[in-house]
Amino acid sequence: MNDAARIRAPELPTNLDWFNVQRPLTLAGQRGKVVVLDFWTSCCINCMHVLPDLRYLENKYPDTLTVIGIHSPKFENERNPAQVQKAVNRYHIRHPVANDPSFQLWRAYGIKAWPSIIFIDAEGYVVGVLRGEGRRKQLDELISQHTQAAAAKGALAGAPVALALQPEAAAALSFPGKVLATRSSLYIADSGRHRVLETQHDGRIRRVFGSGAAGLLDGRETEAMFNNPQGLVVVGDFLYIADTDNHAIRRIHLKSGDVMTLAGTGNQGRYVADRFRDPQEAELNSPWDLSYYDGNLYIAMAGQHQIWRMNLNHQAIERYAGSGREDIVDGQLDSAGFAQPSGLTTLGDRLFVADAETSAVREIEINRGVVSTLVGKGLFDFGDRSGVGREARLQHPLGIAVDEERNALWLADTYNSKIKRIDVRTSQVSTFKIGTQLNEPGGLSLYRNTLFIADTNQHRIVALNLHSRHTEIVNVREQG
After folding, report:
1. Distances from the Cα of 127 to the Cαs of 3, 130, 139, 175, in angstroms?
2. 340 and 383 assigned to the same domain
3. How does pLDDT run across 152-189, given as a tens digit for each residue?
């Protein structure tokens, strides 16, 4: 193909906020290397799934490939450069990222959906666009093909982009995702450090589960390995964990400290099957939270926009609710639509779901098998508004906890950085005003009158007294 028939990649605007580099990049400055533009937004589970593939390719082609993340924000909160920096660190992104809140590049490249990847050859021409996740093999082949072609033409040159990372300040926790309070213990998903902590309510650490390095390995306490653990639930002598980036359900025997894999292979599944007799053969898809009712473990399968169920007696695991289409659809279990469910809790035979991408709270009547919506309207209907039921607006909620005494639900309205209260009887949604500023809280757990909050982006657990509205920071620390 002659150059006249090829499309020169539109240059990167000069007015974007950049992360992980000292100065803005230009495509002209990357000539001689293959360039991949990853159009993503930090809320999107499918975008998260692309990141391990990009990391693999960056490591394989360190001198001849430049990956540039183009952050095209969906939610208002994601437009804030400070929140983008948090997302870059939370996801361990090690390539340049540009924030494009006005969608300049989105329009210039004709992008239609997240995630999308623009492939640019070593001479600066657009080769094509790859939409959706699961493109590692295709990208690998394209990079190999185009670097070889550029080398044959004498057009291949370059070196790795000089990075300038801005790591988080040292803290006892790193992006804690979920928290679970029991009578005698506090369990914390220290997600950014790939471990689970067992502490006293005042934060003194009793035990650590996980080595601190990402991986999938069973063993005792710190011999084991997790990868971005999130949801937690205790049933009898066992702590169950949604090991999100391992696409697995793990179990800790609380008496012995032994960690074992209960379900999942470590590989991400994409609509492989609706039921598995052997849960260790099931390829799951980013399980994010857990809840328990009547012998069954309910799983918020965020990556597949579904709720799954595992019978703890028979061990079989199966799709429970959701067609898999990312949407907000009520009705029977099979036809209902969810959008990145990320929080679960039960009140009697009612399962409540924090449905993040529709900024919604959904309800499943377990005995009737019916899904309904308490709060929420659509994929792009969000905000910060009190009201009754669907009059209210949320912004990407991730955490939910039940309060039987008050007949209420507590909600981590994550991208509004607020705690909301929902009256179960009237569906009235209101902001619970507290004196502490939160930053993207991701998990909640109630014990008596104390609501424990995983204040994710501030690397801490906050204890909120519901009577006095007084808050204290839980001082997570070693015994001594």
Report:
1. 12, 10, 11, 37
2. yes
3. 999 999 889 999 999 999 999 999 999 999 999 999 99
